[in-house]
Amino acid sequence: MHVFIDDFICIKPDLQSAKESADRLSSKMEKVGMVHATEKFQPPAQTIKWICFEFNSQEMTMKVPRDKIDETLQLVNSWRHKTKATRKELQQLLGKLNWVSHCVKPGRLFINRMLVTLREAYGSDQVTLSTDFREDLKWWATFLPEFNGVSFVDHPAHQHNIRVESCLSGAGGTLTVAGSQSPSEFYGTQYPEELHKEKWPISQLEALNCLAAIRLWAPQLARGHLRLQSGKGTDRFLLAVAREVWHLQALYQFTMSALHCPGREMTTPDALSRRHIHPCPPQVQRELASATETRGPWYGQRFPLFSNIRIRCGYMWVLVIHVNFGNTCGLWWIHVDSSEKVWIHVVSGDTCRLG
């Protein structure tokens, strides 16, 4: 039996024992003088509504009921073309979406940027809604019915491991496929000199390296589970990166867990990120002896720009590994400047410009 304030639910392995348990609970409540609302009582079933969620013991899932989905969609659509709102109205909207996100796995990711809008409105009655805010509303309107439902159990899947490390001048990563004890693929690349001059925080470089590794090996993660291991933390910049990762998860149907690893366990990717400075130590060379240095195209696109990292001002760099361009195949970087012109940089230093 589970209790949530004054709501009770009994879970039993079969119908008969569930009926007996419900009868005993009802009898005990009467003996101690507790009165239960008969209109809320639900007989034993494999699909039941409790604390405003729908539980299914056959599928082992928890969902938002259909009527609540329709109600939430109506609310979201009423906000899609707003440019201003009161702080109280914004709190009510986010309270509703926060409740729904208990059953929408990526939901919290698409609330965080909206919460930033609320925090920035502290002390103000009127809130200006940005384009990013409305883009998040668009995501909820499009994907809420599709992603409604979370599972109680972790489905077994092939577990792959990606380890990434960054230094201020380079990035490295390894892929260990399910069933293997040593890396099967790896990469190590130097950041362009121009990026190094911009002095990006190491946390942001690490976030971009995480995204680069996932994007590089996403086709091999299909219908599996990824354990992403990184040696450094990240900051708010992770919100943009996390959105791109979510798109890759949806595209290739894999699940993912991220964890921090102490530096002593990240020797190999760390050495790869610095191999342009000094050679990898002998133990790392031995570990990678049977691994393949990635040489294929990145993502099946000619110039796979990151769709979710939009430029507002200044400029940024995005790592693209092994993009085919004409008869050349190598390590490339895409640079978007403040005028939104795209520059392609080859590690060798050659540069071409695209409109």
Q: Would you spell out the secondary-structure blueprint of this structure?
A:
Blueprint: E1 2-4, E2 7-9, H1 15-31, E3 47-50, E4 53-56, E5 61-63, H2 66-79, E6 84-86, H3 87-100, H4 109-120, E7 126-128, H5 131-143, E8 150-151, E9 158-166, E10 170-176, E11 185-190, H6 193-197, H7 202-217, E12 224-230, H8 238-252, E13 255-260, H9 267-273, H10 282-287, E14 292-293, E15 316-325, E16 328-336, E17 342-346, E18 351-354
Parallel strand pairs: 9-12, 11-14, 12-13
Antiparallel strand pairs: 1-2, 3-4, 4-5, 5-8, 6-7, 9-10, 10-11, 15-16, 16-17, 17-18
Distance between the termini: 64 Å
CATH topology of the largest domain: Nucleotidyltransferase, domain 5
CATH architecture of the largest domain, by name, is 2-Layer Sandwich
Structural class: alpha+beta
**Uncertain runs with pLDDT below 50, 5 residues or more?**
296-333, 344-355
Mean pLDDT: 78
How would you write the strand order of the largest sheet? 13-12-9-10-11-14
Large-scale geometry:
globular
Order of helices and strands: EEHEEEHEHHEHEEEEHHEHEHHEEEEE
Describe the structure.
The strands form 5 sheets. The chain has a 6-stranded mixed beta sheet, with helices on both faces. It has helices at 15-31, 66-79, 87-100, 109-120, 131-143, 193-197, 202-217, 238-252, 267-273, 282-287; strands spanning 2-4, 7-9, 47-50, 53-56, 61-63, 84-86, 126-128, 150-151, 158-166, 170-176, 185-190, 224-230, 255-260, 292-293, 316-325, 328-336, 342-346, 351-354. Mean pLDDT is 78; it is low at 296-333 and 344-355. It has 3 domains: 1-39, no CATH class; 66-151, no CATH class; 158-293, Nucleotidyltransferase, domain 5. With 355 residues, it is an alpha+beta fold. Helix 2 (66-79) runs antiparallel to helix 3 and helix 4 runs antiparallel to helix 5. Helix content is 34%, strand content 25%.
